[in-house]
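Your task
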Amino acid sequence: MKLSALDIDLLTVISKRGIAGITKEELIAEVGKTVKGIAYADLWRHVTALANGGMVDVEMSGPDDFTVYITDLGKEKFGK
């Protein structure tokens, strides 16, 4: 899986949270510090692509709420 700059930003933020994971709101706030004006749909597309690649797990906690966790594969591939 080829990682984009946004994928790397996402993995950086997600990996910092470790086993606690990061909620949707926290992820949007943290990524928004480095990526200005990102649309939620684009963010979600990248999160699901990372999940499909086995780099992160997404736990849905409501119809529009989720928590993202980095996987062992994500740690290994990302080098964190």
